């Protein structure tokens, strides 16, 4: 394969730029031309495409966001939209496409592969860490570190005032950001969509914490469960403690990528380009138990995602 394209799609994630850089430079090193598609599938349908060389990705490894921009494109959810995208790729003589995005973006990519026999490879880019086939997605590590920084700061002021705080974090339907940041931040409780929550147990624990002399109580709540103010109202009826709420929001999607995300980006880019170089498509790249892997896209999307029970259990154990 001599000519490939790359796009970023869905919610942006720190490390997407490092992955774009990796794709362009790995491909250029193997005498492959790279085209960058702007604004995900929207730009693909509209033909917003430009040639990228090694210099075009200088000085981006440390930047959050995505220089190719990203978008959500309802038209690509239709066979007609996918066909338009395919025709644009054909018109540019593009033989392979690398999609950096989450599960929605991968579903679009799968349809492009199966309906039109376009060789596509996915690199997992989402802060949510909600793809079952890979242990980690680009942006997750950075997002968790951003949440940890917030927990540390919020803990200082809660402790000074003997208060509790519910910190709502992103993740869509996935509780990984909450579990990892809750464990690493020493949260008293972690509430995630994958594990049914018992409001009485949370309230009992808060009451016991007050008796034990704990000066603050941090509850990390995944957005997929409910709004932080809903949970606050449920607790406030039962426990005599001042509760504040913080919705961390988009701060979790920005910022300079961590070492882990940059290294993951480079490794995934290298594998993705090599697959296309060998004319292999229909794959998604990731990491399992430290090793870079690639899986069939349909099988990867069918895998059932599970919350990390071990981390959740340890977090509960350590928060006594
Ligand atoms: P993410 O990739 O981060 O999960 P989204 O779920 O918003 O983000 O999906 C990004 C884009 O991928 C959508 O706007 C749409 O263009 C495309 N997409 C999502 N789901 C599908 C689907 N089932 N079929 C085709 N394209 C899809
Ligand atoms: O998928 C990434 C993510 O940040 C989710 O955690 C969150 O639910 C969603 O995107 C927010 O999407 P939007 O950018 O459309 O507000």
Automatic annotation (TrEMBL):
Record: residues binding ADP: 21-25, 155, 186-188, 212, 214-216
Reactions catalysed according to its record: beta-D-fructose 6-phosphate + ATP = beta-D-fructose 1,6-bisphosphate + ADP + H(+)
Broad class of where this protein is predominantly found: cytoplasm
Pathway membership: Carbohydrate degradation; glycolysis; D-glyceraldehyde 3-phosphate and glycerone phosphate from D-glucose: step 3/4
Subcellular location: Cytoplasm
Record-linked InterPro entries: ATP_PFK, ATP_PFK_prok-type, PFKA_ATP_prok, Phosphofructokinase_dom, PKF_sf
Subunit structure of this chain's protein: Homotetramer.
Protein name: ATP-dependent 6-phosphofructokinase
């Amino acid at each position: 394969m001599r000519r490939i394209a790359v796009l970023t799609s869905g919610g942006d994630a720190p490390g997407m730029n490092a992955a774009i850089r990796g794709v362009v430079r790995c491909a250029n090193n193997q005498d492959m031309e790279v085209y960058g598609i702007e604004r995900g599938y929207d730009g693909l349908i509209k033909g917003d495409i430009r040639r990228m060389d090694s210099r075009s990705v200088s000085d981006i490894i440390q930047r959050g966001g995505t220089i190719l921009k990203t978008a959500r494109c309802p038209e690509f959810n239709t066979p007609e939209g996918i066909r338009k995208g395919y025709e644009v790729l054909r018109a540019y003589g593009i033989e392979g496409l690398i999609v950096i995005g989450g599960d929605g973006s991968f579903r679009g990519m799968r349809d492009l592969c199966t309906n039109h026999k376009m060789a596509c490879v996915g690199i997992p880019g989402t802060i949510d860490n909600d793809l079952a086939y890979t242990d980690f997605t680009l942006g997750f590590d950075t997002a968790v570190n951003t949440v940890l920084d917030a927990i540390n700061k919020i803990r200082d002021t809660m402790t000074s005032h003997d208060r509790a705080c519910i910190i709502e974090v992103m993740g869509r339907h996935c509780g990984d950001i909450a579990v990892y940041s809750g464990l690493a931040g020493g949260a008293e409780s972690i509430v995630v969509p994958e594990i049914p929550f018992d409001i009485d147990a949370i309230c009992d624990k808060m009451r016991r914490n007050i008796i034990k002399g704990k000066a603050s109580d941090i509850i990390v709540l995944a957005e997929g469960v409910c709004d932080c103010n809903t949970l606050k109202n449920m607790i406030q009826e039962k426990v005599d403690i001042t509760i504040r709420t913080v919705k961390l929001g988009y701060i979790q999607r920005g910022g300079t990528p961590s070492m882990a995300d940059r290294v993951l980006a480079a490794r995934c880019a290298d594998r993705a380009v090599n697959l296309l170089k060998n004319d292999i498509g229909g794959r998604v790249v990731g990491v399992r138990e430290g090793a870079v892997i690639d899986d069939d896209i349909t099988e990867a999307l069918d895998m059932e995602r599970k919350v990390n029970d071990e981390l959740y259990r340890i977090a509960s154990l350590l928060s006594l």
